[in-house]
From TrEMBL:
Organism for this UniProt entry: Dactylosporangium roseum
Top-level taxon: Bacteria
Keyword line: Oxidoreductase
Protein name as it appears in the record: SDR family oxidoreductase
Family: Belongs to the short-chain dehydrogenases/reductases (SDR) family.
Pfam families in the record: adh_short_C2
Amino acid sequence: MPQRYGGRVALVTGAASGVGRATVLRLLEEGARVAGLDTAPVDTGGVFDGVLGVRCDVRDEEAVRAAVDRVAAWGGRLDLVANVAGVASYAHTADVTLAEWDRILAVNLTGTFLVCRASLPHLVTARGAIVNVASLAGVRGWRYSAAYSAAKGGVVALTRSLAVELAPSGVRVACVCPGSVDTPLKAALRPVPDPDPRLLEHGRALVDPPVADPAEVAAAIAYLGSAEARFATGAVLRIDGGSGV
Ligand SMILES: NC(=O)c1ccc[n+]([C@@H]2O[C@H](COP(=O)([O-])OP(=O)(O)OC[C@H]3O[C@@H](n4cnc5c(N)ncnc54)[C@H](O)[C@@H]3O)[C@@H](O)[C@H]2O)c1
């Protein structure tokens, strides 16, 4: 295992589950001090020795500001922010309520913006990095996912714009676009009623098994957040088993 994060402090949102949890573990293995932010309790398995768990809803502007400042004070610096928290649902677009549209946009896109904005002063000081988790649905069309794909497309655009704006200050910004990942989020997704059979194979991965382990996404996040990725600022990296090729 490379040791790219010795002496570094990382903040991971969505740390209680799935990709976020795997990212915490990966960064710990690479020598980081890690804070995990989530609405759910972080470290239910008791394996996050030394991790600072912070209960926070990424939609809450003031709570995010307080949480980020608390993490920076705890760590004495902030080198990496991994925006992993997210929610998803499937629906025929005609059935998407405004409340559901707003919920998906608020967590995935506005939450990412709020955490980025609150972290900026600390990241500029540390010449650190942001890695956002978008989705394959943010870079190609995806069935029955209008709100989610719009939110994740927004995360991709936000990533690129921040990468440009922050380059002179030495802060790098990149994102990963996972395809299907074996997590509670995926397990909880309910198929829509009456799907068009022509769409069901759309976007299927080409490798076997056709679903990623969360650790495979965490490895990409750890790379993009590290100094090894100095020249990869603005990168939009699909981790999708070839389904978006
Ligand atoms: N699983 C997949 O197939 C897949 C594919 C592409 C992208 N993604 C993205 O990967 C990221 C991680 O998803 P996952 O599959 O690990 O899901 P997950 O449900 O296992 O984990 C998501 C975590 O985010 C937290 N969270 C949700 N809303 C929050 C909020 N408002 N504030 C703070 N924390 C909140 C949840 O409590 C949970 O711990 C998400 O952004 C998701 O959109 C997942």
